[in-house]
Amino acid sequence: MQMKKNKIAAKKCIILANGKPPRKSVINYLFKSGYSTLICADGGANKAKLLKLNPEIIIGDFDSISLNTFEYFYNKAKIIRITRQNDTDVEKALKWAIKNKFTEAALIGGTGDRLDHTFCNLGIVLKFFKKIKINLIAERSVLIPYSGNVELKTLPGETISLYGFNKKTKISTNGLKFQLKDEALPFGVRESTSNVAVGDKIKLAIKGGIIFVIREFNILKTNDFI
User: Fold this and answer.
1) What is the rounded distance in angstroms from the CA atom of residue 10 to the CA atom of residue 102?
2) What average pLDDT score do residues 113-124 get?
3) Is residue 35 over pLDDT 90?
4) How far apart are CA 138 and CA 107, in angstroms?
5) Nearest 5°: phi and psi at 81?
6) What is the CATH number of the domain that holds 194?
7) Is the pLDDT of residue 66 over 80?
8) Which of 57, 109, 197, 215 could form a disulfide with 17 if both were Cys (CB 3.0 to 4.6 A apart)?
9) What are the pLDDT digits (tens) for 153-195?
10) What's the pLDDT at 85?
11) What is the C-alpha to C-alpha distance for residues 205 and 210, in angstroms, rounded to an integer?
12) In a domain? residue 2
């Protein structure tokens, strides 16, 4: 979801977890935007069935998928059972995606009524950053991780929030109302919540780590920023 596009087209997938999924229109838009494969992480298949979506892959230890859902998709999807417990079902899905050369994933259903699952999935975005780009979509927002030098298309007046995680990660910005100049946003100490774009693009220079940028999904969709 970055303004500059790679010369080689990214291979993108959607990973549907067992939390609260977005509206089906969001998922349909992702399909139209190049996210070619739907992977359900265990109980995410229950959500897919409710939304009348057909996953290509269902993967997990299968402690959350209902018997009815399992039987429904048995001959409609590739079902991969992995019993190991040292990673979550979302991690199992991501590892499968990485093994199959996907470079970007939209994680949906990654938040919901389990705060521990939500917190875990936020950590997974960081944990897998060097192997696959994960854009986490929840409610009205999309969370995107970035490092290095980034230029993003924006809408003047658009709310953009930035979050760092330690004192080593330094951020400089251009094009935001509240500018940062080689500053850190350590988690629990300082953040840049509800910053504002002043023009049609912003530039971020991120050194020494990764930050999260949170934007409104509908703005990105309506203005063809994704």
Assistant:
1) 7
2) 92
3) yes
4) 9
5) -100, 125
6) 2.60.120.320
7) yes
8) 109
9) 999 999 999 999 999 999 999 999 999 999 999 999 999 999 9
10) 83
11) 11
12) no
pLDDT-based confidence at residue 22 (cuts at 50, 70, 90): confident
Q: Would you state the structure tokens that stand for residue 90, as one six-digit string? A: 């979302």
- In order of 16, 81, 132, 150, 173, the CA distances from 214 in angstroms are 20, 33, 18, 14, 15
- Are residues 21 and 171 in contact, defined by beta-carbon separation less than 8 angstroms? no
State the average pLDDT over residues 204-210: 97
The tokens of 203 are what?
């530039």
Nearest-angstrom CA–CA distance, 8 and 209: 25
Q: How far is CA 62 from CA 19, 33, 42, 89, 111, in A?
A: 15, 30, 5, 9, 19
Query: Burial of 70 by CB count in 10 Å (0-12 exposed, 13-18 middle, 19+ buried)?
Result: middle
Instruction: List b or e across 92-103, with b for residues whose CB sees 16 or more CB atoms inside 10 angstroms.
Output: bbbbbbeeeebb
Q: Which of 201, 208, 136 is nearest to 165 (CA)?
A: 208
Q: What is the residue range of 202's domain?
A: 145-222
Amino acid occupying residue 41: A
Number of alpha helices (DSSP H) and beta strands (DSSP E) in the chain: 6, 12
This prediction's pTM: 0.91
pLDDT at residue 103 in the model:
96
Matching residue, tokens 């897919």: 48
> Are 89 and 55 in a shared domain?
yes
Token pair 């994960």 in the structure block, residue: 134
